[in-house]
Design a protein that fits this description.
alpha+beta; T-fold; seven-stranded antiparallel β-sheet; 6 helices; about 35% helix; globular
């Protein structure tokens, strides 16, 4: 997927670190294997991936794996929900990377990081990929994630800070990968969407780049950063 993934595990002062770190490392190794498998299966740049095989007609919606079918169906649902602003088809081929990234982070987080809460010293965990984050904080903990949103015109500056304990946040725009979204509006520099599920907020962050007039579902909130007369402005969506 061409994405760097990082995770953060927050421990309290009572942690028996040598023993606990060994257990944490085990789960992180499982997470790494999982993410590598996702790339192998869903990358459109690998000739033997399931996505490439589908695009060559070697497998169909009736013969594809359950995971690819879920990605296929979810991408279609996202296209319908966003009135075509989110579209996993590119140049006549199925290219679901825009959905797979958020989905794989959310699933990997649930499978391999949330189980760390079985250890009482673990206060919070997150998983980040390409600047998008799924996070959770133990209910009794005071830990809050301070999330800096990068200035789309200066990737070394923070334009806004968001504080979250649990949930998901996705940002789409030009700061990480330049102008890479098909159909994006020129004056829209960056969008950020906040909710509970990363696969959902990532879809809507991409969709707002294409159609900033879309109304977000009630369970989501977001910011759109626009270029106006040489300045960057933000509005709440």
């Amino acid at each position: 997927m061409g994405t760097v993934f990082t995770s953060q595990i927050v421990l309290d002062e009572t942690a028996e670190k040598p023993a606990l770190l060994t257990k944490i490392e085990h789960f992180q190794n499982l997470l790494e294997v999982y993410l590598e498998q996702i790339n192998t299966r869903f990358s459109p740049y690998l000739a033997d991936s399931e996505v490439s095989r589908y695009n060559r007609g070697e497998i169909t919606a009736l013969t594809m794996s359950p995971d690819l079918y879920f990605v296929f169906a979810s991408s279609l649902a996202a296209k319908l929900a966003t009135h075509d602003a989110f579209d996993a088809n590119y140049n006549g081929e199925f290219e679901p990377s825009g959905f797979v990234k958020g989905w794989s982070i959310e699933v990997g987080f649930s499978k391999f990081l949330v189980p760390l809460f079985q250890f009482p010293s673990v206060q919070a965990v997150n998983l980040i990929g390409g600047g998008d984050m799924q996070m959770e904080t133990r209910e009794q903990s005071d830990w809050v994630f301070d999330i800096g949103i990068v200035d789309p015109t200066d990737r070394y500056s923070i334009i806004k800070t968001v504080q979250l304990k649990t949930g998901a946040i996705a940002t789409s725009g030009i700061s990480e990968r330049g102008h890479h979204i098909k159909g994006a509006v020129d004056d829209i520099l960056q969008t950020t969407v906040i909710g509970q599920a990363l696969q959902e907020v990532d879809v809507w962050a991409t969709a707002l780049m294409v159609n900033p007039d879309l109304a977000l579902p009630d369970n989501l909130s977001g910011f759109i950063f626009t270029r106006q007369e040489g300045e960057t402005h933000a509005k709440i969506s």
